Amino acid sequence: MDFAQLLISGLANGCVYGLIALGFVLIYKATEAINFAQGDMMMLGAFITLALTNDNHMGLPFIPSVLIAIAVMAVFGYLLDALMLRHVFGQPQIAVVILTIAIGYIIRFGAGLIWGHEPQSLHSPLAGQDITIAGIALGLDEIAVIIVTILLTGFLYGFFAHTRTGIAIQAASQNQLAAYYMGVPVRRVYSLVWGLSGVVAAIAGVLFASKGSIDPNTGLLGIKAFAAAVIGGFGSLPGALLGGLIVGVIEPFASRYGPSGYAQIAPYLLLVLVLVFRPHGLLPQVQQKKV
């Protein structure tokens, strides 16, 4: 019974990591850049929902608050690229890495300035609601995290594989100049993907905040999610989810059965092993550049 409880809890946490990792992969698939502010965007989406929902703030109903937060983060992601990242368009990828790290610090500072640094809880209708199946207590928040993550991963996979916009995004990542000559508005497509990553970040933030408290340092979960993306296979949407699930499941079992503090380093030990023996990840999506 203890094993099953740990497994469910790990899967739910892993789904949150997987959603943040999806944001990394979305940006990478389109631009071959890495957004190290993805975790902080997740935290910001959670705080926006909290500010709209909690009674000591605006006190709006939960669902409208979530939809508003998703829309705000979509615009935030779009403008982040259109107003800032577009200025380093064509520069070495390290410029984007440094810029997004700086943006992450700014987001954390801003969140602390507005909402403070004390942990806060989102007033979610999912929080504290449990159902028991075969003697196993399952939280509705955990079930919601798992279901939403699977649905969102499937939607994004279908979007990239079967829609004109998704194919255009992949074409732009393969060869920007050729895609431009074929009529693909490359810069607008990139901004669209950043907006989509903002949507994913907001959803991840709401689901994470429904499970526990949040504070500005919650954005540092992006580091763990980045490890999950690498483990699963950078560039692979199913790989991002798989990596998140693996990291999420490892943590509670390492905490329960391993030495003290082992849970904190277990995901990174796995990351090292994966990089040594499977450098492209567990579900690699290696493509040759078209020139």
Report on this model:
The structure is a single chain. α9 (221-232) packs parallel to α11 (262-277). The protein has a two-stranded antiparallel ribbon with strand order 1-2. With 291 residues, it is an all-alpha fold. The chain is globular, with a radius of gyration of 19 Å. The relative contact order is 0.21. It has one domain: Orthogonal Bundle (ABC transporter involved in vitamin B12 uptake, BtuC), CATH 1.10.3470. The N and C termini lie far apart (55 Å). Helix content is 71%, strand content 3%. The model has no long low-confidence stretch (mean pLDDT 86). It has eleven helices and two strands, in the order ααααββααααααα. The longest helix is centred in the first third of the chain and has 30 residues, at 2-31.
